């Protein structure tokens, strides 16, 4: 009712300033309060609701500003779901109409310089704060317009921040920091929503500030702090005519000509996997990337498949590329309570009998958390980049803190 009253007084909302709109809403609220009792809280909620509907992102605005919400899922204008503390639940709010949802979608997509319509019904975009957005429209979406927003924390996602959130222990944090400083090539695997990009952010912030870093993403989400020589690249979708697309593979090839110390690829999904492996194999030690998989072994198989999508190579040759390029695989996943956990850390040891050989360094126990299984075998990079003493000191501290035992206490 308040919204209709405001609209009746301002035919062209877009022609007035934010301040004028707020004053107009306040005037109508004053008149309404003379007709019916409105508490101060009710007035504030109505003011915010109408202003968000007319000038911002409608019901999404409050959900985006609520830090306890990590994911927003819209299945048509009447069905909105949110994720809070790893649990999904239905939101009490919904859009007033399908048309209003379309308006919000177009506002978000246009802000990311993307286009979505019936001819191009699927698009990935991002919000100014880095939150990831996926939109699907009819005819591919039978429930009406569908939008999923993966939110990211406002705070910088450093390793300390992740540890404070319960992602891992200080021992695991220091171990991973040493791997990054020693320029081990790291691949992060996990399912959808397992925290791959979040961990990638944390690991990337361990990179020494005097290095030249190039990040490559489909939608820019990484936030690296303290690195001055930083180049951020983002893929470009094709235009309406299907032209001028810039792929992840093209960006990796371009990055290799820009003298990077390390390349950080947000996610590999297809034939760009070979370019990423080539980068790791051509002197760009310390590169990091992520991919979707159900486990470390599955990640290796998926990498083989992704390489074959772009080039016809013998599987043995592909496995050789993987074995020589990747040093460490970190696997993430969700456990029973819905929380994200670091489930496994594996070291790649080369080839054996035509297969990529791996050794488990850490494994996850449901009761005890992440436990160490073995120490690093390949310590060449530790010595080469001055991290061997730090690693030996970490192992010594850990052994002493556990009374000489090889196992260790719960980390999560």
UniProtKB/TrEMBL annotation:
It comes from Anaerostipes rhamnosivorans. Gene3D superfamilies: 3.30.450.380, P-loop containing nucleotide triphosphate hydrolases. It comes from the Bacteria. Keywords: Hydrolase. One of its GO terms (molecular function) is ATP hydrolysis activity. This is Type II/IV secretion system ATP hydrolase TadA/VirB11/CpaF, TadA subfamily. Pfam families: T2SSE. Belongs to the GSP E family. Residues 59-334 form the Bacterial type II secretion system protein E domain. CDD domains: VirB11-like_ATPase. InterPro entries: P-loop_NTPase, T2SS/T4SS_dom, T4SS_GSP_E_ATPase.
């Amino acid at each position: 009712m308040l919204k209709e009253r405001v609209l009746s007084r301002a035919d062209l909302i877009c022609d007035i300033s934010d301040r004028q709109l707020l004053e107009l809403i306040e005037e109508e609220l004053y008149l309404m309060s003379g007709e019916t009792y409105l508490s101060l809280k009710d007035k504030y909620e109505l003011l915010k609701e109408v202003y968000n509907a007319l000038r911002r992102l409608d019901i999404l605005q409050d959900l985006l500003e609520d830090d306890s919400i990590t994911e927003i899922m819209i299945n048509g204008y009447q069905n909105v779901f949110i994720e809070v503390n790893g649990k999904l639940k239905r939101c009490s709010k919904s859009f007033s109409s399908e048309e209003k949802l379309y308006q919000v979608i177009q506002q978000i997509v246009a802000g990311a310089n993307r286009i979505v319509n019936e001819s191009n019904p699927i698009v990935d975009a991002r919000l100014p704060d880095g939150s990831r957005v996926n939109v699907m429209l009819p005819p591919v979406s039978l429930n009406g317009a569908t939008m999923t927003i993966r939110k990211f924390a406002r705070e910088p996602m450093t390793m300390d921040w992740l540890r404070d959130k319960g992602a891992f222990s200080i021992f695991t944090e220091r171990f991973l920091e040493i791997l990054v400083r020693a320029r081990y090539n790291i691949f992060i695997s996990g399912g959808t929503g397992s925290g791959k990009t979040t961990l990638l952010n944390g690991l990337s912030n361990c990179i020494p500030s005097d290095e030249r870093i190039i990040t490559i993403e489909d939608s820019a989400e990484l936030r690296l702090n303290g690195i001055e020589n930083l180049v951020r690249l983002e893929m470009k979708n094709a235009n309406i005519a299907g032209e001028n697309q810039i792929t992840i593979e093209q960006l990796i090839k371009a990055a290799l000509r820009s003298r990077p110390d390390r390349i950080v690829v947000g996610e590999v999904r297809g034939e760009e996997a070979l370019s990423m492996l080539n980068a790791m194999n051509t002197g760009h030690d310390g590169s990091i990337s992520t991919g979707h998989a159900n486990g470390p072994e599955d990640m290796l198989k998926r990498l083989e498949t992704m390489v074959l999508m772009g080039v016809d190579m013998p599987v043995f040759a592909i496995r050789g590329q993987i074995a020589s390029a990747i040093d460490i695989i970190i696997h993430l996943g969700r456990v029973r309570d819905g929380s994200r956990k670091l489930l496994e850390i594996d070291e790649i040891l080369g080839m054996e009998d035509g297969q990529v050989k791996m050794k488990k360094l850490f494994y996850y126990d449901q009761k005890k958390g992440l436990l160490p299984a073995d120490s690093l075998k390949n310590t060449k990079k530790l010595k080469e980049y001055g991290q061997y003493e730090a690693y030996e000191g970490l192992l010594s501290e850990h052994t002493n803190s556990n009374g000489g035992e090889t196992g260790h206490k719960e980390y999560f």
